[in-house]
Each structure stands twice: as structure tokens, then as C-alpha cells.
Design a protein that fits this description.
By secondary structure, the chain is an alpha+beta fold. The chain folds into two domains: 210 residues, no CATH class; 96 residues, Arc Repressor Mutant, subunit A. It contains ten helices and 17 strands. The strands form five sheets. A five-stranded mixed beta sheet has the order 2-3-4-8-10, sandwiched between helices. A four-stranded mixed beta sheet has the order 7-6-5-9. Strands 11-12-13 form a three-stranded antiparallel beta sheet, with no helix packed on it. A hairpin with a 2-residue loop joins strand 3 and strand 4. The longest helix has 26 residues. The protein is globular. InterPro entries: NERD, Znf_C2H2_type. This is Nuclease-related domain protein. It holds the Pfam family NERD.
Length: 329
């Protein structure tokens, strides 16, 4: 099976926030901790992908990754991996936690026990999986589609478990092919080819509804505290003007052209979903209105308003799909 997974936009945005935060900003620790968590999650997803693609299922199969299912007004569920076939849908919830893990019942959670005996609690992955299954079942039912939904939690790390129920839907990633092939074998077809293809198209369109929340809003960061101007790609220092088109880093010696696209992308990822001429001039430290207009028109941004009220927008979820895609063959 072919698996295509994009580099997480949220993780990339966190990395850009870390680059633009000043060294003494108190938000740095919070952003670094979140980067660590997101990198671990992404690493687990990639490990699961390797085994999903080794799975051999006959007939039509489609793998969707990082799927967001809308539950209602302002509510949604994120699914790491969804394997679709005419016989059923299977959700793979990927996890990677180091060390010994303890399954706790009241409330349901897992605890990672470090060598010094310190226990760190994490949300129960079984509850997460059950929530995703129910969301997927409700989504299908609301569209009149009859298709069974099942799933498992796949751990990419080698863990010793304490208190894990025998029937818990938790497996190591290496068992993903056996799990999927056995599940597929015992189920009859529920959809014909036309119905299956229509289902795939409907689910692929779900991603078009996702709205991006800038990092500053998520973390309560004052945008005025971010570094302005062009940043060095090597050391994240603010670049100094060399010529009309070039910049250089006084710290590490890097020299290059002004990267307006990276600067504008940082604005959308970190600060606000729209940008206007004055905001670009302030963020990029430009002086000319005409130069700012020319720069904004260089890129495929959505345009709204007119004259001095013209704004440009970009939704990172929809418009950056092709930029950070990881393909596994």
C-alpha cells in the first residue's frame, strides 16, 4: 500500500516560532516542549507508515493520513492513519513513548515511569482510539454509508507494560500488517467500486475545511515580541541589509537573497491569517508601498478587498500540501 504523509504544518510552525522568538522570551520553553511532543508523535506515525505500506490487501485500498473529521460546530477529531477498503475502515493511532508504561483505570490514562521512579501521565490512547472510531462511524452514518470501522493503537517504541488489559487494542508497529490482513480476511465487501471511490473523494474533501490558528494565538504570544525582518537560515539571527536584493549575517557570515516567501509564510503561520501592505512593510522593515504591493503579488495568495483595504491570505492546511510531503514507496 502506498502511504503519503505531509510534514506536519503545526510542527513546522512551531519551529518557525522558535526561530523568531527572542532568546529571553518566556514562551521559548513552552514551544520547545511542544516541539518535543510533536516530533515524537510524527516519528511514531512514520514508523507506523513503514509497516502499513508492507501490508498486502487485495482490491481497492486507500490510505489517508492526518485526517480531520468534523463532529459539529467547532469540534473535530484528528485521525493519524485511516485505511479504507470496500470491506471496512481501520484507524491506526500511532504512539511513541520511551520507558516502562503503566496502564491506569481511574481515570483512564497511561503513565511513563522513569528510571528514578517519577511517573508522567499521558491521555489514554485507547480512549482516543474509541473517540476516533465513534467519530468515523457517525460521519459515515450521517451520509448513509454502511461500512464497519475498527482500529488499533500501534506503539513504535519497545515498552514494558504494567497493568495492560489482555484485550487492549494495543500492538507494536511491526504487527500492523498481520492485524490488517487478518481483519480484512474475515470481512465481506460492503461497497462496490463506485461507492468506494465516492467515499474516498468525500473524505479527501474533509481536509479543505480545516482552519489554521496562528501560533501566537495558540500560545498567547505577543506578536510584537517576535524578531522582525529576514532571518539567517543557519543561525536564526536577524539579517543585515547588504544591497537592494541581498542580506548578510553578521554572526555566522551567511549571505543570500532576501527570502520574502519565508517571511510572509512566517506571518501566516505565527501572527495572523491575513496580511496587508502596511503589515508587510512593518514585518519586513520595508519603506516603499509599491515594493510591498509588488512582493505580495508575486505569490499565489488569496486576495480580498480593494485599494487600501486589500488583504492577502493563505491557509497553511490547504495551500502548503505540496511543500512538505513525505512519500513512501
Amino acid at each position: 500500500m502506498e502511504v503519503r504523509r505531509q510534514y506536519p504544518v503545526y510542527l513546522y510552525a512551531l519551529e518557525r516560532a522558535l526561530a523568531r522568538l527572542k532568546p529571553d522570551d518566556p514562551a521559548i520553553r513552552q514551544v520547545k516542549d511542544e516541539i518535543y511532543r510533536q516530533e515524537a508523535g510524527y516519528s511514531g506515525e512514520l514508523a507506523s507508515d513503514q509497516y502499513v505500506q508492507r501490508t498486502r490487501l487485495p482490491g481497492s485500498v486507500r490510505v489517508l493520513t492526518d485526517l480531520q473529521i468534523e463532529l459539529g460546530e467547532g469540534e473535530s477529531v484528528q485521525i493519524d492513519t485511516l485505511i479504507l477498503t470496500p470491506r471496512g475502515a481501520w484507524i491506526i493511532e500511532s504512539k511513541r513513548y520511551r520507558g516502562m508504561l503503566r496502564y491506569c483505570h481511574s481515570p483512564k490514562r497511561i503513565e511513563r515511569v522513569d528510571d528514578d521512579g517519577l511517573a508522567i501521565a499521558f491521555p489514554c490512547p485507547i480512549l482516543q482510539l474509541e473517540t476516533q472510531i465513534r467519530a468515523m462511524e457517525g460521519w459515515l452514518e450521517s451520509r448513509g454509508i454502511e461500512l464497519p470501522v475498527n482500529g488499533t493503537v500501534a506503539f513504535a517504541s519497545h515498552n514494558v507494560w504494567e497493568g495492560l488489559p489482555d484485550a487492549a487494542p494495543i500492538i507494536p508497529v511491526r504487527e500492523i500488517p498481520f492485524y490488517l490482513e487478518n481483519e480484512f480476511r474475515i470481512k465481506p465487501d460492503c461497497l462496490d467500486a463506485q461507492q468506494f471511490n465516492q467515499l474516498v473523494r468525500l473524505l479527501e474533501r474533509e481536509g479543505l475545511h480545516k482552519e489554521w490558528t496562528p501560533i501566537c494565538k495558540r500560545f498567547g504570544i505577543n506578536p510584537n515580541h517576535l524578531k522582525r525582518g529576514f532571518l539567517c537560515p543557519d543561525c536564526d539571527a536577524v539579517l543585515a541589509r547588504a544591497t537592494e536584493r541581498t542580506v548578510h549575517c553578521t554572526g555566522c557570515g551567511h549571505e543570500g537573497l532576501r527570502d520574502y516567501w519565508q517571511l510572509i509564510l512566517d506571518w501566516f503561520l505565527l501572527i495572523h491569517p491575513t496580511i496587508n501592505n502596511a503589515q508587510l512593510r512593518t514585518f519586513a522593515r520595508l519603506t516603499g508601498k509599491q515594493s510591498a504591493n509588488r512582493i505580495l503579488r508575486m505569490y499565489e495568495l488569496d486576495k480580498g478587498g480593494a485599494s487600501t483595504r486589500t488583504v492577502y491570505s493563505l491557509n497553511p492546511y490547504r495551500d502548503l500540501d505540496a511543500m512538505y510531503e513525505v512519500s513512501l514507496y
